[in-house]
UniProtKB/TrEMBL annotation:
Hydrolyzes 3-hydroxyisobutyryl-CoA (HIBYL-CoA), a saline catabolite. Has high activity toward isobutyryl-CoA. Could be an isobutyryl-CoA dehydrogenase that functions in valine catabolism. Also hydrolyzes 3-hydroxypropanoyl-CoA. Pathway: Amino-acid degradation; L-valine degradation. It comes from Denticeps clupeoides (denticle herring). Belongs to the enoyl-CoA hydratase/isomerase family. GO terms for biological process: L-valine catabolic process. It is found in: Mitochondrion. The gene is HIBCH. This is 3-hydroxyisobutyryl-CoA hydrolase. Its EC number is 3.1.2.4. Signal peptide: none annotated. It catalyses: 3-hydroxy-2-methylpropanoyl-CoA + H2O = 3-hydroxy-2-methylpropanoate + CoA + H(+).
Length: 382
């Protein structure tokens, strides 16, 4: 077969396989939790739990990690693409209800899930192949860990980003201690403490996404990516830039937080959560009052852990952050607030958690420091 004809046939096969995966994504029947397939020169990861917003499980992590490492070493695979099945979510986070149940029963899931999830997050952050996350829909918690550490994160008008962990007695993990402090000004700390939700193009404007492409063009973008022959990072960037250049949706709307950036930098400048709360209450503006009200609902312990996490992570390597966050995860699993937060927000849904301690003043510096202490031989090793 002539070379030109062979290339044409390969492109046709790639398109057909891509269509088959996309068709499978739309099916209502149960299937594998994650789909892993080579399409053209691309390794394609599809989170396949649309009915539960593609919530991440330990089994999914254990499927993705070895395949990612295999594709990274495979000379036939030039780019990795990750996406979520369905229209609503890329990945709404980890299955924290299952984690809470495991923690109550003493199951080792509370150790294994965090350890293996952070190991996967680090593999994404160090992957030598171009890694493209198509983060249309809800992208929170564990979904952020699967996307934000790769070279490319493509948001759409349907993207909804947040790290809402302080509301359930946890902290913005999966590397939140690395990427959030590196956003402009105090924006990352603001997002970490309040769980504020960014939507659509604002995910790009905040620096979380690298590109914005209208959702109706994502299928065409994906096809162009898998058709690339041995692409470099620059080649992938050119394709993404071209599609971003075509996007006009909401282009003229200002960043929703733009008018508040100076306020955020000023109000969240304090070195303690008590100081931030005092700034917010003293300021008295509607924006400040709203943030004070929001923080008053969060776990006081989580707020203090998160502030220290952000302060420390600002000068750490990605690997050092994951080691720190694993220590924090185990401290939370051994505490009270995570289980109470999951009960109040996700199980009983009464939205009325009873935090212990219940006030910021009762959360001592000693208890915070203890959560950051080494676990010795049980520390995360990367």
């Amino acid at each position: 077969m002539p070379v030109a004809a062979l290339r044409s046939a390969c492109r046709l096969m790639s398109a057909c396989r891509l269509q088959r995966i996309q068709a499978h994504m739309m099916c209502g029947h149960a299937g594998p939790e994650v789909l892993l397939e080579r399409v053209g020169n691309a390794g394609v990861i599809t989170l396949n739990r649309p009915k539960v917003l593609n919530a991440l499980t330990l089994n999914m992590i254990r499927l993705i990690y070895p395949q990612l490492k295999k594709w990274e070493a495979d000379t036939e695979t030039s780019v990795v693409i990750i996406k979520g099945a369905g229209e609503k979510a890329f990945c709404a986070g980890g299955d924290v209800t299952a984690v809470a149940e495991a923690g109550k029963s003493g199951d080792r899931l509370v150790k294994d899930l965090f350890r293996e999830e952070y190991t996967l997050n680090n593999a994404i952050g160090t992957c030598r192949k171009p890694y493209v996350a198509l983060i249309g829909g809800i992208t929170m918690g564990g979904g952020v860990g699967l996307s934000v550490h790769g070279q490319f994160r493509v948001a759409t008008e349907k993207t909804l980003f947040a790290m809402p962990e302080t509301a359930i007695g946890l902290f913005p993990d999966v590397g939140g201690g690395y990427f959030l402090p590196r956003l402009k000004g105090k924006l990352g700390l603001f997002l970490a403490l309040t769980g504020f939700r960014l939507k659509g193009r604002d995910v790009l404007r905040a620096g979380v996404a690298t590109h914005f492409v209208e959702s109706e063009k994502i299928s065409a973008l994906e096809k162009d990516l898998v058709d690339l022959r041995s692409p470099s990072v620059d080649d992938v960037a050119k394709v993404l830039d071209a599609y971003q250049g075509q996007s006009t949706l909401d282009a003229e709307k200002p960043f929703v937080l733009q008018q508040h950036m100076k306020d955020i930098d000023r109000l969240f400048e304090a070195t303690s959560v008590e100081g931030i709360m005092n700034n917010l209450k003293t300021d008295g503006s509607p924006f400040a009052q709203k943030q004070a009200e929001m923080l008053s609902k969060m776990s006081p312990t989580s707020l203090k852990l998160t502030l220290k996490q952000m302060q420390a992570g600002a000068t750490m390597s990605l690997q050092e952050v994951f080691v720190m966050e694993y220590r924090l995860s185990q401290a939370c699993m051994n505490g009270h607030d995570f289980y109470e937060g999951v009960r109040a927000v996700l199980i009983d849904k009464d939205q009325n958690p009873k935090w212990k301690p219940s006030t910021l003043e009762e959360v001592t510096e000693k208890s915070v420091e203890k959560s950051f202490q080494s676990l010795g031989e049980h520390d995360l090793r990367l």
